[in-house]
Design brief:
mainly alpha, 5 helices, about 140 residues, about 0% strand
Length: about 140
Amino acid sequence: MLWIKAFHIFFVASWFAGLFYLPRIFVNLAMVPAGSEAERQRLLLMARKLLKFMTMIAVPALALGLYLWLGIGVGRGQGWMHAKLLVVILIVGYHHACSVLLRKFENGANARSHVWFRWFNELPVLFLLGATLLVVLKPF
């Protein structure tokens, strides 16, 4: 079980590295001046590659977490685990929102400012803090 936990933590940390950085690319995309097509295309390429990497890393992170919960029974029936699963659903939703936002940038349909993306970039910090506190403290 410790090997499974270790790999779960590794994949979650790797996934979050992308969740922290992709919205920073969005900040830069939102700030690209009109007519700077080369800069825009470079940032879009970076964002597409990062999203692909994040998605590939998210799969084992989620699979190992599900195995720990359903296969081994970690946290089964405990309130903290239900709250953590809610946080995980929010994280997956955030990941999906990033893919939707990237498509909007690709289609030239982004209507949000760089300031909005700076605030959007803070959400994964809160998600990670919430999940970590729930797992370590098991408050209920």
